[in-house]
Amino acid sequence: MRSVDVKEIADAVAEMARESNYFLGEDVKCAIQKRAQEEPWPVAKSVLEKIEENIGIAEEGVFPLCQDTGLACVFLEIGQDVHLTGGFVEDAVNEGVRRGYRDGYLRRSVVRDPLRRINTGDNTPAHIHYEIVPGEQVKITFAAKGFGSENMSRIKMLPPSAGAEGVMDFIVKTCEEAGANPCPPIVVGVGIGGTFDKAALMAKEALLIPFDRPNPDAFYAEMEEKLLRRINDLGIGPQGFGGETTALSVKIKTAPTHIAGLPVAVNINCHVSRHAERTL
Ligand code: SF4
């Protein structure tokens, strides 16, 4: 049994809140650069170049990449041989979010109640997902989720007879209806199977998969490629200005499901696909 002080978790979360809002991952930057080079439509090309310029300005000046600095989604994978000490883990995560957003001058975007809408003033509470895993480490993944794209996400309980074609049609239709709202080029996370809630969680987790990591299942790897092509064929383009670059990546996660159902969730992220990881 290994002890981990929750203070370390708070420190890591504070650091990741700032880092993820200033610096995009190499996979995202490479994908945007490649698309900017290959994009044949001049207007789309120039938008992608502006996006690259914005990424550079944020990195150099240590400024947030976007005014919407996101809702803090925190994924904790806790080894079953870890003993967390020094306080309650949820308080530690929220302390990290509070400090990260305050010290990083990041916008506070959370309201305490969905209908009465009073800002909590410190971007807490975080949305925390816990998973118990083998081992004696704690892996923390922080994602700052913007809501221009979150609002365009959809879930549907399809009949099993819909099959792969029905699933793909729903995913593409969701992206088409989203149009320019999620600040394309978008990143598409898909959850297929499980239950209503599990599908949505898998879709969000799929957004955290590096672009260059192929799906281990050849069937779904092929589906991801087909979907990326179909979404880019929609012609929405960067920020909705047309062209061949509507999406940068499509990632799918799956889970066993009930014989009577086929849940599908599509979680859309914008090109500001912000996340960071630490292992303690
Ligand atoms: S969708 Fe993304 S790029 Fe657009 S405003 Fe929100 S965080 Fe910013």
TrEMBL record:
EC top class named in words: lyase
The Fe-S hydro-lyase tartrate dehydratase alpha-type catalytic domain covers which part of the protein? 11-277
Q: Which GO terms describe its molecular function?
A: 4 iron, 4 sulfur cluster binding; fumarate hydratase activity; metal ion binding
E.C. code = 4.2.1.2
- This protein is called Fumarate hydratase
Print the keywords alphabetically: 4Fe-4S, Iron, Iron-sulfur, Lyase, Metal-binding
The Swiss-Prot or TrEMBL record describes its family as follows:
Belongs to the class-I fumarase family.
Q: What Pfam families does this protein map onto?
A: Fumerase (PF05681)
